[in-house]
Structures are given as C-alpha cells and as structure tokens.
C-alpha cells in the first residue's frame, strides 16, 4: 500500500497544493490504491516539501518523479493507448499548466493584497494553529 503525504483539502479541493492534487488525481486515474496522510511536518519529506509518498518502505518526493517511478515499477500507464499525437498534446498541455499557469497562480495568490491576506490566514490556520508565537 502506498501512503500519500499531502496538504489538507480546502475550498472543495482535495488539497490546497496543486502538486498534491496532480499526484492524487493520477493515482485515482491509474487505479492505484493509496492511503492519505495529511502532514504538517515536512522534516520527513525527502525533498522538504509535499507531496511525497511511502512506497515499499521508501520515501519518494516530487509528484513528477513519483508518477514516472510508479509507471515503471507498477507497469501502469494510463496514456498507453494514446496515439503519438495525443501523447504530444498531453505533454504540451501538462507543461503549459505546470510552467505557465503556475506564474498566473502565484500572481493571483501573492500580488493581489486581499488574496494574499486570505491565503496567509488560511496557511496560518492550517499549519500553525495552536502554535505559540514569540513575544514582541
């Protein structure tokens, strides 16, 4: 059984983190069974970030690396029946989302003052609720 370590769900999404959504969606499409562990402690994460998985006793990080490793080790490729043209379109679409849409998301999240304040409060509540803060 694979354990998927990810950020918590929020706003009707399976996770607040796009890479976590990407990996979990792929696991569902590939019909691979997994358990979910919502984590706030990234010290266990092999790359210091989420998502990561525990697979046969090994911790593996980075959603893209995880997907490629599972394709190889489990012999599962949801894209196996696509034509070469469809595979090229799929790759182009993934890269567009990952490399270009990301910057739009960052702009919306951090450069629009009201959005950043909401997101900052959400992260504080999710990851630091109950933590003590240093006295000023």
UniProtKB/TrEMBL annotation:
Signal peptide: none annotated. InterPro entries: Glutathione_S-Trfase (IPR040079), Mito_Protein_Transport_Metaxin (IPR050931), Thioredoxin-like_fold (IPR012336), Thioredoxin-like_sf (IPR036249). SUPFAM superfamilies: Thioredoxin-like. Residues 18-115 form the Thioredoxin-like fold domain. Gene3D superfamilies: Glutaredoxin. It comes from the Bacteria. GO terms for cellular component: cytoplasm. This is Thioredoxin-like fold domain-containing protein. It comes from Moorena producens 3L. The lineage of its organism: Bacteria, Bacillati, Cyanobacteriota, Cyanophyceae, Coleofasciculales.
